[in-house]
Amino acid sequence: MKKLLVLTFILLSALTARAQFVANREVTLPAPETYLFAHRDTCDLFLDIYQPAPGKDLLPDGRRKPTVMYVFGGGFITGRRNDPFCNSWFEQMIEDGYRVVSVDYRLGLKGVPMRFDLAHLIDAAKKSKRAVDIGVEDVFSAIKYLSEHPELGVDMNNIVISGSSAGAMISLSSVWESCNSRELSKALPEGFRFKGVMSFAGAIMTDTGKPSYASMPCPHLLFHGTNDGAVAYGKTAFGKRGIYGSDELVKILAKIRCPYQIYRYKDHSHDMAANMEETWPEQKRFLEHTVIAGEALTLDAMVDDPAMTVRQTITLGDIY
Fold this sequence. Notes:
This protein has 320 residues and is α/β, with parallel strands linked by helices. The chain has a single domain (3-18, 27-319), classed as Rossmann fold. 24% of the residues lie in helices and 24% in strands. It contains six helices and 13 strands. The strands form two sheets. Strands 1-13-12-9-7-6-4-5-3-2 form a ten-stranded mixed β-sheet, with helices on both faces. The protein has a three-stranded antiparallel β-sheet with strand order 8-11-10. Helix 2 (121-148) crosses helix 3 (166-179).
């Protein structure tokens, strides 16, 4: 790990070089290739593949840019892989030469009553952990399908997983499961490792105590609001059960010297789960320098950016 940069950003609009989000901007994406990757008792699961813009997926030295696998959010009760809200972000990625794979997963809390008062906290934790595990199982099935179909063009050694909210929890947990060779990871191709993970307001939920890694995890890129009331920014733990948000995860990653980059958005809530397009410049730097070039850069930034889109505050009570 080359160096640790501790940055405090007080960003005024004059200093902001990011591509700004345009509300309700209509984007017409090229039609994806859609494949059925798993049959479940309750539903069939599909994935969409958006191919990179011709000629932009190769680096000057001939290496290909990674595939970005996206896992949607929605509190495990709603959401879909082809939500038009993501079109402009997908467009940015494919125009920059990244293949995008957007995947289905079963919504483990849809129709499930949830209560978060003290008397029902353990029950809610068990149900939530089960929902995460179901999502991880389905993501691993999608990866297995891609590995069995090389004609689809996805390099299995070059996949970055990303997710928003519930999808970010699934993405982070997918990395954790695979690094620890846990039961769910047995479905993965032998030797499979993620090349990177990008989390938009995510966390790892465990019932075995503080997360640890038996093997070195891939580099992490984390975006989180410091006032997130839906997915913990810090940690909430009782006994061996707990949810470990971005602030806690980087402490664990730092101890094992795993490269990470975290953007802590001052006073933002769960809205950072939806700010994928706005943070594309940070993602692009992570992908180009950390994932592709292999630069072991760790960055910790507290961001106070008046230009960042602020959305309605969402709490667990709003979702459930």
